[in-house]
Amino acid sequence: MAETYMLEMTGICKSFPGVQALDKAQLKVRKGTVHALCGENGAGKSTLMKCLFGIYNKDSGSIKLDGREVAFKDTKHAIQNGIAMVHQELNQVLQRSIAENIWLGQVPRTRTGLVDQKKMYRETKRIFEDLEIDIDPRRKIGTLSVSARQMVEIARAVSNNIRLLVLDEPTSSLADDEVKQLFRIINKLRERGVGIIYISHKMEEVLKIADDVTIMRDGKWITTEKAENLTLAKIINLMVGRKMDNRFPPKVNKPGEVIMSVEHLTSTYMPGCIDVSFDLRAGEILGIAGLVGSRRTELLETVFGTRRHSEGTIKVHGREIRNNTSRDALKNGFAMLTEERRASGIFGVDSVMFNSVIANVRAYRKGLFLKQQKMKEDTDWVISSMNIKTPSQKTHIKFLSGGNQQKVIIGRWLLTKPEILLMDEPTRGIDVGAKYEIYQLIGDVAKQGKAVIVVSSEMSELLGISDRIAVMSNGHLAGILDMENATQERIMELALHFI
């Protein structure tokens, strides 16, 4: 008996100037199943979804929903037909309440035409109770953690009575217990007959939650298999088209003398870091572990100066420095890669060149003008040394894959010649092949004698690239482990120490 599908995308082609983004791609999703869509950054996953949602017009191919040919004009049209998507980069109105964000674009009104606040609260509460989400709908969404905001987005999708839900990197910022909660919600939706397209670079999770797996490479459909017939190694080999025997490159750096000392550092704005002290050595990769809410990011922001500190000192080469602003930090030899790449990392509507040189613009000044040739040469260096795939320097960075965007940002900061590089979730939402390249870049930076601090939610990543691992717990530094004593169990013990 032939399989029946709620969604059939076949022979999908889409090209941009100089790029064949999709080449006869296909995706077929069964009702009430979780269908994982896997591939390296640039494989065509996002482009395929944008063709589904009407963001892009496909050049050719067929899209059928429940056997009926469809061509959505835009995302609103897709939602009206029961298809919704929760993006990795959240797009929410942070100064408004959770309930208002849930009902954005479909606000209930009273008979007099006013916004029906009571109904919004009541209906949001009902959806949250159904999904077992324990958050007050009246809270401002900007006060929530990234993980909680992601749960709100899923609830918003459910409020539209969706039949097909697309989840793009849903666990990229979630701790283990939050992943379990997400999987519980996914299983509940699956039992109701909702089809779920699950896009993720975390292969272990794919094998846990997915029923079917489709793998793409270079815009082409490679295969669709039952998840039970796949292994982690097989998925990775199909994705990258080559064997990857090691997830992490060999260590090439050798930590030397202490380059920075942080003593009793406490953030001005709470919640933040509390009485944190540690040393950082030249040529060292110091990993920062901790659960969501442990204030790892807040620690980096305080060191970098985007978050002021009320107590404590930072010394570089034995001299006390004051990073009151990010400009101060740059002058003092710091650079910082932020967690939210799209929100605070890239200038999406500007070129690869602009995004490469913007942090180092003072070096290009020549009177009232800028040294165009020098900027071009430095951008060439970023593209070649970071192995960035881009049609040209003039290409808008938003058209690059997530991994290539991240490499542009790393190159940008390296142009400032920092002594201390702070990196917050540098491989978030990036495929295994691009991750390996970024690990190599981090190792090369440390090999040059620069110090690197890496915050990551993936313990395996920290264990694979770090020289030592500092563990944050509820704003406190719970301990620092050398690699001889660092295990996932020991990291978790420390992460729970102040909770």
Could you explain the architecture of this structure?
By secondary structure, the chain is an alpha/beta fold. Helix content is 33%, strand content 25%. The chain contains 17 helices and 22 strands. It has a six-stranded mixed beta sheet. Strands 16-19-20-13-21-22 form a six-stranded mixed beta sheet, with helices on both faces. Strand 1 and strand 2 form a beta hairpin. Helix 13 crosses helix 14. The model has no long low-confidence stretch (mean pLDDT 87).
Helical residue percent? 25-40%
How far apart the termini lie comes to: 54 Å
Portion in beta strands = 15-25%
Oligomer: single chain
What summary fits the major beta sheet?
A: 6 strands, mixed
Give the rounded overall mean pLDDT.
87
Low-confidence stretches: none
Widest beta sheet: strand line-up: 6-7-8-3-9-10
Shape: globular
Count of helix runs? 17
The overall strand count is 22
Estimated structural class:
alpha/beta
Overall radius of gyration? 23 Å
